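JOB MANIFEST
job_type = single_chain_structure
chain_count = 1
residues = 140
[input]
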Amino acid sequence: MDDLIEALRAGHGVALPGADLLLTNAYEVLVAGVMEAKHIGRGVIDGVECEHLAFRNLDTDWQLWVEVGERPIPRQLVITSKTLNSAPQYTLRIKGWKTDVKPAADAFLFAPPAGAQRIEAYALIGLDELPPAAPADGNP
């Protein structure tokens, strides 16, 4: 998973907000560059009591809600970009983590639907978190 995320981000410019939670060294990556951190208090996400934490980096503010109790797993992540106009936000809500289940050997085999076309990874380079600008004359 680490290699895939790195390849898509660095090699192809895909942002993948929230993918840091899937990295092997998630904690180290998340706290790198943190300039300020605060414990906001407790809150409830989808009926689960959570600790609400807030962090500030140079280019992003992000908040993390972590389940209280024996399973301290992330339940929600909100990332606010400070480098783009209107400060867009990404919200990732985790409904369930299956940490005690080993997936079947074929769980990640891809079976393309009929009519699907294969594209190369470089075709993803044009993907951006913002849609393309509308033409100045207003015509599509």
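[summary]
The first helix runs from residue 2 to 11.
Helices lie at 2-11, 26-31.
exit_status = 0
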